[in-house]
Structure formats: C-alpha cells, structure tokens
Amino acid sequence: MAKKPIxxxxxxxxxxxxxxxxxxxxxxxxxxxxxxxxxxxLDAMPCVALLIRPKTREIVLSNEAxxxxxxxxxxTCYEAWAQRDEPCPWCLAPxxxxxxxxxxxxxxxxxxxxxxxxxxxxxxxxLHYAFDITEKRKMEIxxxxxxx
Length: 148
What we know:
The chain is of the alpha+beta class. The chain has 2 domains: 1-44; 45-145, PAS domain (Beta-Lactamase). The protein has 5 helices and 5 strands, in the order αββαααβββα. The chain has helices at 5-43, 64-68, 77-80, 93-99, 134-145, and strands spanning 48-52, 59-62, 103-109, 112-122, 125-132. The protein has a 5-stranded antiparallel beta sheet, with helices on both faces. It is elongated. The termini are far apart.
C-alpha cells in the first residue's frame, strides 16, 4: 500500500518541528550560559554595575552591589537605583545610544560623588557602572587644605 501524500507531508512537518524544538533548546541553553557569565563578570566588579536596555532603561541584570542599592532586574535604573520618577538629568545613556561610544561623568548626587560610566554592549544592551568616590574626593580636599 502506497503512502498517502498527506501522511508524507505530516511526517515532514513533524521532522521540521522536532528540529525547531532542538534549535530552540540550544538557543535557551546558550542564553542561560551567557547570562550566567554576565552575572559572574558583573559580580566581580567592585562597584554598582547594571546591564540595561536602551530606550526603556530596564535593568536586565545587576551585580550584588546594585541589588543592595535597590537596582533589581525588571525595574528601571532611575526608579530603582536613583529613586526618581524620570531619567536622571545627568544620564549619558542617550549619548551612548546616539554615538555608540562609551561615556564617562563624575556626578554628585545627594551626598555621594559617583565616577560613572556607560558602555554599549550591543544595540539592545549597555553596561552602566559607577564607583562611589566620595571618600577619595574628601581626602583630596583635606590634602589640598593641609599646610605645606
């Protein structure tokens, strides 16, 4: 008895679907590995470090220091970390998006002086990290005021 064309078509479609499922599983594993590596790298940074989506400023991943500061994935950097209702006026992320080039700024917020950096990772992600340099600046001022 000869196979019916419909059966052959269904058999072919099942094979295609099996391949799609396998490809999707491989992509998910690759993404998990990448996220794990990103987390390891961020946690090794001795400052607040965040991976953020451009335009929305949604935090994708934050290191331990970032999480302690309130910057948790799924929130925006300005709401969670800076505790603001809108993007910070000193934020250089839009310049990163426009130019594709890293940006740097030293900024004083409340009683903290930050040495802040923004680096593009790809078109859908950038790295924002900042060091609290308040004590360093205070020491520099004291040194300048010390009689010579």
